[in-house]
Amino acid sequence: MQAKDSRYRFLLENSNIRGVVVYLNETWREVLGRADYPAGVRDILGHAMVAMPLLASTVKFGGRMTLQAKGSGPVTLLVVQATAEGTQRGMAHWSADTPLAPLACVLGDATLSIQIETGKRGEIYQGVVNAHGEQLQDALAHYFENSEQLQTRLWLMCDDQQAAGILLQALPDADPNSDDWDRAVHLVDTVAAAELFETPAETLLRRLFHEDQTRLFDAEALRFECGCSRERTAALIQGLGRAEADSILVEQGSIEITCEFCNSRNVFDGVDVEAIFRDGSAPGSQMLH
After folding, report:
1. 264 with 287: CB under 8 angstroms?
2. What is the DSSP letter of 13?
3. Which stretch of 142-151, 157-166, 184-193 has the lowest confidence by average pLDDT?
4. Strand partners, 151
5. pLDDT of the residue at 289
6. For position 2, what pLDDT does the model report?
C-alpha cells in the first residue's frame, strides 16, 4: 500500500515534464465525517480535495491557497483550502439532489477561482475562470491554459474511503512540438481509480514511464486541519460591531458560531462579548464539537 495522505513530486527529465501524485485517506475521511454529503456532492468535493495539493505543488507560497467554485447548480458553493505546511480543509453547500456528472449539471453556470495568500505583507493573488468541461479536472486544466499558459492535465478520483490524483505539467522550456506531452498524457489516461488507490507512487511511475528517466522526490505528508479557533471567532464578532453583537445577545441570549469546515461550535455569552469589545479577549465559553 502507498503511504497515507502524501504528495509525491516527480520529473520526467528527458521530456521536460513535471508531475505530482497525491493520496488522501484519513484527510478525506475527516472531511466526509463532517457532513452527510450526497454522492454527487461527495464526488466533486473529493476531486477538489485532491486537486488542492496538486495545484499547491505548482507554485511557491507561504500562506494559504483557496479553490472556490460558486454556481447556480445543485452545488452552490465549494471551498477547499490548503496551506504551505500541507494541511487542508474543505466543504460544500448544496440545495438539491446532485448528479454525478457532468460539471455543468453539478455547478450550473459557475465561476472557478484560485486565490493565493503569499504570507508576505498580506499579498493576495487571484485568478477566475468560468467552470467549463465535463469534470472539475477539465475546468482546472482550462484555468492553467488561460492564466499560466502551461500545458497541464489533472486526473482526480475518489470514493467514500479514499481519494487520489495525478498532475502533469509541461515545464516552461519544454518543446511545444515534441510528442512527449501527448505520450505522457496517453499513458496516465490508462490509469483506473482502483489502480491509483492501491499502487504506491514509485511502482505506479515505474509502470507508466519505464522508458523515461524519472526522478521521484521524497514524500510530503498531508493532513486535515481546520485552523479555526475561539480567538478567530471572537475576531468575527468584533467585526460585527458592538451594536450588532448586543442586538444578537438581546434576541438570542448568546452568540453561537459554527465552523462550516469542521463543525466546531463556539458560544459567547454577555460576559464573553463584553471582554471582546473591552480588550479583544474571549474568556469563559467552550469550543464544542
Report:
1. yes
2. T
3. 142-151
4. none
5. 43
6. 53
- 68-80 per-position pLDDT tens digit: 999 899 999 999 9
Q: What is residue 5's three-state secondary structure?
A: coil
- Provide the grid cell at 202: 514509485
Copy the grid coordinates of residue 162.
479514499
d(Cα 76, Cα 131) in Å, to the nearest integer? 13
By CB atoms closer than 10 A (0-12, 13-18, 19+), residue 288 is exposed
Segment 218-273, tens digit of pLDDT:
999 999 998 777 887 788 888 888 888 888 888 888 888 877 777 777 888 888 88
The whole-number average pLDDT for the span 212-217 is: 94
Phi, psi of 138 (to 5 degrees): -70, -40
Q: What letter represents residue 218's amino acid?
A: D
> Can you read off the three cell numbers belonging to residue 65?
491557497
Query: Can you read off the three cell numbers belonging to residue 66?
Result: 483557496
Residue range(s) in the chain whose domain bears CATH number 3.55.30.10: 6-224
All cell numbers assigned to 3: 503511504
Q: What angle do CA 131, 134, 136 make, to 5 degrees?
A: 55
CATH superfamily of 230-288: HSP33 redox switch-like (3.90.1280.10)
pLDDT of amino acid 146: 78
Give backbone dihedrals phi and psi of 68, rounded to 5 degrees, phi first.
-135, 135
Give span(s): CATH 3.90.1280.10, the chain.
230-288
Give the right CATH number for 6-224 from 1.25.40.10, 1.10.150.110, 3.55.30.10, 3.30.200.100: 3.55.30.10
CA torsion through residues 30, 127, 59, 197, sign: positive
